[in-house]
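Annex B. Sample input.
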Amino acid sequence: MQEDTLNSADQQSSRDSAPLSLPAPAKLNLMLHIVGRRADGYHLLETLFQFLDYADTLHFSPRNDGQIILHSAIEGVAHDDNLIVRAARLLQAQSKTKLGADIWLDKKLPVGGGIGGGSSNAATTLVGLNYLWRTQQSLDSLAELGLSLGADVPVFVMGRAAFAQGIGEKLQPVDLPEPWYLVAVPPVSISTAKIFSDQCLTRDTPVTNIRTVLKQGGHNDCQAVVEMRYREVRNALILLNKYVDARLTGTGSCIFGGFPNEQQAVNIATQISESLPSFVAQGANISMLHRALQNLIEN
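Annex B, continued. Sample output.
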């Protein structure tokens, strides 16, 4: 692990003067079917991704000594194991750049919430440092790099709402309605690995296609296992289902429901606030990351 020699005041000043700041947005799995399992143990999925206008923020400053230093620690995650650091080093190796980076993370997305915090952080690091270092990697190349970090990373790199198959890497862009979502955050962090290794998990949902999903919707095969294992999520679903059709995203713990406008979502969030923390955000077919990057390029 690299030693951080900056004191807190210097860190704040350095972060605030970083030349590049980009969002790492949340995502929702609007449905998640598990249709099989590969010989290597990876699950075969069908899922519908949509982004939220709700995000962590990453700040990047280049270094000339090749070091990658993440100045924002995450409890329980060693510096060199953090997906942000691993993503930066992958891009270094792929592009053969001699540059490094100081990186700061403003954490907003809940850990273990199923809304893509770690994967989104990794994707923003790949896209952001590709821009900052001028390494000129294509999005397809960055997505391929990202896949080695996690199955959700490619969709964040590509930045488009998508129907995903395979282990999450086969992406078909889709145009979806962009409702307002109330996302409730039960007080528990869930390990994706534990859910996918549960013997009770359904792994043989029939294969479908994008047209059927867009017409008929789908369900989340992980939800029954999560409800069985985590009463906090089960109780949250019971509460939110009183107001809206509530579903689990990914392997949880976050649950969500859609509304036609922001005010309706805020009203329900207020009603459940004493029992269940939540946030309200609009769905987005183009991610905040790519909108911010396009704005940088145009200006």
